[in-house]
Please model this.
Amino acid sequence: MGDFVLTKVGTGLVHIAPAFGARDMQLALEFDLPILETVAEDGTFVPEVRPWSGVFVRQADPLIIQDLAARGLLYREEPHPHASSFCWQCSTPLIDHARSTWYLRKTHFREQLAAVSQRIQRRPKHTRIELFGSWLKNNLDWSVGRERYWGAPMPVWECEACHHQLAVGSVAELSQLAGENLGDLDLHRPCVDEIHFACPECGAAARGGDRFCAQCGGRLEASVEARA
Model:
């Protein structure tokens, strides 16, 4: 019973895919629905999806349509305009995929932020309620993790052996830890992923690149978004 599903439009039913959409994920968490990842990180169907296991999802579309038609389950096929995610740099179509990341817990301070906003004199005055007021009322936790190749990663390195985590505060500090001048380093992935240094606690290799779970501290696998 999502508030975005209307009985006056269409069938009143909507397909839910929690692992592949933010609104769907929120609905799944609210109603304790299962979160099934049927697509791997490279954009291909997982082994359980037969007979299209290993096939890139966009290439599987016509195959699925043919299968439905052969089984007498296809009502109609026709082109339909549809908003979709795309890379803002190269316009390549992307696939939404649930990922673990780091968040700043802004919702914890929602009422405090709204109260402070009311004391700020803004010009024009209506922006205090209509613009900033509405934005703060719907304020969400901020995802600060980045694991795309153009993203800026969290400056946290973790030891492979003792799992000690170290937040690096500057390029100068990173240069000192790595034992080399990194003044010209591109502080984006994958360039920064190549920087390793000895753990200050046990001496084993510490690696960075925004790959750690904020809840358990476990390592997360990195990936580039699946592309068509």
In short: Helices lie at 22-31, 57-70, 110-118, 127-137, 171-178.
